[in-house]
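Exercise 7.
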Amino acid sequence: MGETLDDVTGGCYCGRVRYRARGVSPEVTECHCSQCRRQSGHRYASTGARTSDLEIEGTDGVTWYRASPAAERGFCATCGSHLFWKRTGEDYTGLLAASLDDPGRLRLARHIFIEDKPAYYEIDDPLPQFVGYATPRD
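Solution. The predicted structure, written as tokens, is:
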């Protein structure tokens, strides 16, 4: 595992849900798939940490939605802020980059599901682009 950030904090807009994590990757993945776009309203930028390294305060305020057989997404039941996503059966929780208290320590590292990107915007940075999660774009 490369560089990680410890003592990362974040939460939802209304403050009902707060979290603290260690071992958070400073690398942000921007997802362009239709599920992420529909949930967030645009691109979905996230980083993450091991679920076992994540402490959530206000867990009763988190609603989990099973978006697919492979993943579920967590959001604040009060204000609707998108906070987490989890892949089934893995010790990993994605943290929405915008939910961190100090996102200035993050850096955009890659784009995924670029084949689902709508025509109304372009990806105009030199970062790696992938079809799906891990197939490099030709």
